[in-house]
Amino acid sequence: VAGSVPALAQWCEAALNSLATLELHASYVYQALAFNFDREDMALKHLACFFLRRSQDLQNRRGGRLCFHDIRKPDQDNWESGLQAMQCALHLEKHVHQSLLDLHQLATHKNDAQLCHFLESHYLDQQVEFIKELGDHVTMLHRMGAPEDNTAEYLFDKLTLGDSHKKN
């Protein structure tokens, strides 16, 4: 049919659904992180907002048809420090990034220029930017004396993340 969109190849559909499942798992982890830091005993509201925004970004970024798979719950639901949480998020984002690179490599191998372009323009650059941001946060927290110095996390929450909502 003229003007119709070609059907997704099975390999492509399976790979995209696998990526979507991983992104939804990441969203669950970010929700758990947000709730962890919004508790009374943690009271790091900007850290909570940072992770909640990331969860919402991941959910809103996914469009189109989705074949739902079981999404595993986060491996943990309690983080002792903002540094531990940022390290967890950094590890998770590196895993997501590797999955994106694997999908891009598969699309290249299958000569799917459209999927390659989609990944390059909508995912890969943003993923690298967020990994850099998380790495900067981990470095900053280390330099400030976290996790040994609780004041470091308070100042990081207030001064570094406190203004981040104004950027978004």
TrEMBL record:
**Pfam families found in the cross-reference section:** Ferritin
Q: For binding Fe cation, which residues are annotated in this chain's numbering? A: 23, 93, 127
**Gene3D superfamilies from the xrefs?**
1.20.1260.10
GO MF annotation: an example: ferric iron binding
Residue ranges of every copy of the Ferritin-like diiron domain listed in the record: 6-145
Which keywords are on file for this protein?
Iron, Iron storage, Metal-binding
> Can you cite a GO biological process for this protein?
iron ion transport
* SUPFAM superfamilies per record: Ferritin-like
Asked if the keyword Zinc belongs to this entry, the reply reads no
Q: Which PANTHER family does the UniProt record give?
A: FERRITIN, FERRITIN HEAVY POLYPEPTIDE-LIKE 17-RELATED
Provide the function of this protein. Answer: Stores iron in a soluble, non-toxic, readily available form. Important for iron homeostasis. Iron is taken up in the ferrous form and deposited as ferric hydroxides after oxidation.
Question: What is stated as this protein's family in its record?
Answer: Belongs to the ferritin family.
Q: What is this protein called?
A: Ferritin
User: Can you name the source organism?
Assistant: Sus scrofa (Pig)
